[in-house]
């Protein structure tokens, strides 16, 4: 099973591919969509849950989503058709860093997708290239809640301490680059734990429901390994913040 298919299965029962519950996704979008006739871009949209929710709530809104996962874009297209919003949604199968458009966007999203650009500041630079004057960026990024020990780093994919900042340093980096937070949400420990239980549980459930599938043993192994890395490694150490940003004038 390739990484993209595994991720799609693992996120089956979660509102977005990030540690945010449904109510906080809605709250962030209420703050981010100010008029209802904006043009929105999601860089690394996956199955486009943020865009689908926004389009369904605002009939005057238009959106584009960019992702390298063809399967996720197919699922997004089918969901948009069911919701009756497909005419207002453009889906683009390409790396987020390679997206071009003839128009600018009032809101650019990059939630948990900074790896596609090589880090936090390159992500903000890429978002700014697409942003209309006075526009906003909705950025979701991981950080260290506390100093990571060896178990946390090993569990987090063999990460290095410098791969993430603590939250004050992350916010300082953003503001020094000329961006001002106008709203933000730190995912609670419950949200972080719910996300991990959902991720590992959905993959386990799929493996148990498809015992004869060639990928079932691999899916079950990955779920078990991930759960152990989380519970014995980075639980309580990794955090996630979502910031609504405007460029300092």
Automatic annotation (TrEMBL):
Listed name of the protein: SAM-dependent methyltransferase
Listed Pfam families: Methyltransf_12
CDD domains, sorted: AdoMet_MTases
GO biological process: methylation
UniProt domain Methyltransferase type: residue ranges: 41-136
Keywords: Methyltransferase, Transferase
Keyword presence, Magnesium: no
Gene3D superfamilies listed in its UniProt record: Vaccinia Virus protein VP39
One function term, GO molecular function aspect: methyltransferase activity
Stored InterPro entries: Methyltransf_12, SAM-dependent_MTases_sf
């Amino acid at each position: 099973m390739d990484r993209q298919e595994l991720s799609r299965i693992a996120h089956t029962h979660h509102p977005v591919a990030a540690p945010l519950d449904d109510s906080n996704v809605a709250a962030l979008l209420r703050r981010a969509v100010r008029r209802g006739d904006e043009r929105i871009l999601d860089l690394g949209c996956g199955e486009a849950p943020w865009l689908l929710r926004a389009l369904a709530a605002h009939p005057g809104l238009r959106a584009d989503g960019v992702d390298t996962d063809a399967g996720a874009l197919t699922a997004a297209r089918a969901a948009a058709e069911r919701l009756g919003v497909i005419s207002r949604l453009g889906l683009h199968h390409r790396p987020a860093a390679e997206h071009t458009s003839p128009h600018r966007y009032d809101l650019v999203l990059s939630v948990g997708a900074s790896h596609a650009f090589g880090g936090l500041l390159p992500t903000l630079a890429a978002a700014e290239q697409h942003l209309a004057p006075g526009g906003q960026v909705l950025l979701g990024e991981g950080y260290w809640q506390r100093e990571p020990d060896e178990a946390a780093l090993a569990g987090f994919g063999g990460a290095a301490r410098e791969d993430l900042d603590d939250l004050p340093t992350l916010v300082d980096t953003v503001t020094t680059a000329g961006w001002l937070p106008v709203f933000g949400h730190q995912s609670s420990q419950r949200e972080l734990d719910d996300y991990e239980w959902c991720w590992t549980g959905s993959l386990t459930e799929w493996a148990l429901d498809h015992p004869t599938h060639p990928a079932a043993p691999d899916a079950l192994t990955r779920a078990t390994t991930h759960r152990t890395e989380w519970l014995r490694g980075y639980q309580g150490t990794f955090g996630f913040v979502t910031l609504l940003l405007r460029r300092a004038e």
